[in-house]
Amino acid sequence: MSRPTRSYAPGPDLQRLSGALRITGTVIGRDEVLHVARLARLALSDEEVELMARELSAVLDHVAKIGELDLSDVPPTSHVVDVTGALRADEPVPCLPREVALSQAPVATGEGFLVPSPQA
Amino acid sequence: MSAAEILELSARAAAAAIGAGSLSATELFDVYRERAAADKAAGDDGLNCFTWVSEPGSANGAGAPLGGVPLAVKDLFCTEGVPSQSGSRILEGYLPPYTATVVARLREAGAPLLAKTNQDEFAMGSSNENSAFGPVRNPWDRERVPGGSSGGSAAAVAGGLAPWALGTDTGGSIRQPAALCGIVGLKPTYGAVSRYGMIAFASSLDQAGPLTRDVTDAALMLRHMVGHDACDATSLAFPEEIELPRAERLEGIRLGVPQELTGEGIEAGVLAAFADALERAQELGAEVRELHLPHAPHALSAYYVLAPAEASSNLARYDGVRYGLRAEDPRDLLDMYTRTRHDGFGAEVKRRIMLGTYALSSGYYEAYYGRAQRVRTKIAEDFSAAFETVDFIVTPTAPSVAFRLGEKTADPLAMYLNDYCTVPMSLAGIPAISIPCGRSEGLPVGLQLAGPAFSENRLFEAAHALELGIGFEAGAARV
């Protein structure tokens, strides 16, 4: 199975990845693994990058089989069971007290979650 | 009543004995609590079913409909003040400030919390080998897996370490471990049970359900699980009361055997047990006919796009800010996110986050996610067409009996194939039950029955008649 046809142009991130766009078949290269890991906010060791490239390629090769089906007139499923009127009345109810919500945080001040600066 | 006599009781029989005064709720709770605590203390020398066991003296529920029959609950259900980490290191130390609706409902109905059960991390796996708490062992053979992801729940019930247990099923995570452990497991209709307080994997598929010794226990537990919940907008009022099944015959019942899910890829011994069960069904009066679910072979492909895509979104919340693990000495915010997730997630969870992020990324969305949602429509249409001519679909639950620990860990695709027969029903949102139907190589084989949305009552009736007809002997696994 060849790589599925893209229905619209790759985003700017992918366009920068010339390595990723030269791939033939469903083969995910190192650059593409690192790109996706960055999108997923996931640090990977060198060994994990290599392993992930192999494993993702194998799985994507398998799932790409759905590319063989003619689905042009088929609507996508948005929800499996018919539900109408799922909206509730917009009435304020109590939520978790602040100290309870903060109690599970790795680091908190009395007023909020404490995180490192976005730009160190 | 002696401990040995108590262990012989189904959950329903135990509730009845408490109601009749021949057994006290405290006695029952203590017998199981001691067994569960002993398994926990034994570590890898036991079955490793539990992540947490209740303190002595936690019995309650006498006088309520379930009489105080204690319940083992999969780790991923939030339980207030009780560790709930979905089998993951990233939620180490997390004590939820609230309880999942379904756990609260069962407690109010008289099923107090006995223990939390081991599972594959974030319910991703078919062998319970992807757990921060280590693998669970199968009570039929300690060198084999119990299935997954609700492996701890299944092994606990099969091993007689809990009277019954709560699990969740996304692509087969109740049914497949139930099959591999020789017990009953039901995935209800999507929306029948509130998902509020379930640590999410794939929200359009996740559903809580019972793992029990027999079909009657499954019906009894489900009766107290279903219903609309204001905290889950996808939950629905169940259209009727769940009844305890009584059927002993299958006259007038038409069973459809889909050729796509009963041929290639299924072990010979499993197919033989399945064929025996179909013969038994015919003896009980059922009509068995072959049919086709033409898109079923594509279900696994669609599932392994949709479930990881939803997971990649759901698991974005584990960022080291609000709960659980945070990487030490982060350089800046991004460094904290990426290293926390690197340290906290196991290999299979990382693989699925990557797969899902890839499938949803710019340029690939329509080719993967969009197409998979269209395949999902075709699969649901196949089932609707089939239910025009038959009452239920029957298949083997899993393609093989319990496999050896470590046998499939190096090959993600081989592991994913465990879900081959269960994923189509998940994608269509319909209910499906697995019951033990015999043995192959001495190990249990599961039979799956699936019906239209909200057909649980009829499904229980048919499964009950078949269960009686098959007469599977499960006591051997109680340790």
Provide key terms for this protein.
heterodimer, A: 120 residues, mainly alpha, Histone, subunit A, 5 helices, 35% helix, disordered N terminus, B: 479 residues, alpha/beta, Amidase signature (AS) enzymes, 2 domains, eleven-stranded mixed sheet, 15 helices, 36% helix, globular
Q: What's this, in brief?
A:
The complex is a heterodimer of chains A (120) and B (479). Chain A is mostly helical.
Provide structural commentary:
The complex is a heterodimer of chains A (120) and B (479). Chain A has a domain at 12-68: Histone, subunit A, CATH 1.10.20.60. Chain A is 35% helix and 0% strand. Chain A has 5 helices and no strands. Chain A is flat, with a radius of gyration of 22 Å. In chain B, β7 (254-258), α8 and β8 (287-291) form a beta-alpha-beta unit. In chain B, 64% of the residues are buried. In chain B, α9 (299-314) crosses α12. Chain B contains 15 helices and 11 strands. With 479 residues, chain B is an alpha/beta fold. Helices cover 36% and strands 13% of the residues of chain B. The chains are: A mainly alpha (120), B alpha/beta (479). The interface between A and B is large, with 64 and 74 residues.
- How do the helices and strands follow one another from N- to C-terminus of chain A? HHHHH
Oligomer: heterodimer
Globular, elongated, flat, extended or rod-shaped: what is the shape of chain A?
A: flat
CATH architecture of the largest domain in chain B: Alpha-Beta Complex
- Report mean pLDDT of chain A, rounded to a whole number: 79
Q: What's the CATH first level of the largest domain in chain B?
A: Alpha Beta
Q: What would you report as the Rg of chain A, rounded to the nearest angstrom?
A: 22 Å
Helix content of chain A: 25-40%
- The separation of the N and C termini of chain B measures 19 Å
**Fourth-tier CATH superfamily name of one domain in chain A:** Glu-tRNAGln amidotransferase C subunit, N-terminal domain
Under CATH at level 1, the class of one domain in chain A stands as Mainly Alpha
Largest sheet of chain A: none
Largest sheet of chain B: 11 strands, mixed
User: What ranges of chain A have pLDDT less than 50 throughout 5 or more consecutive residues?
Assistant: 1-24
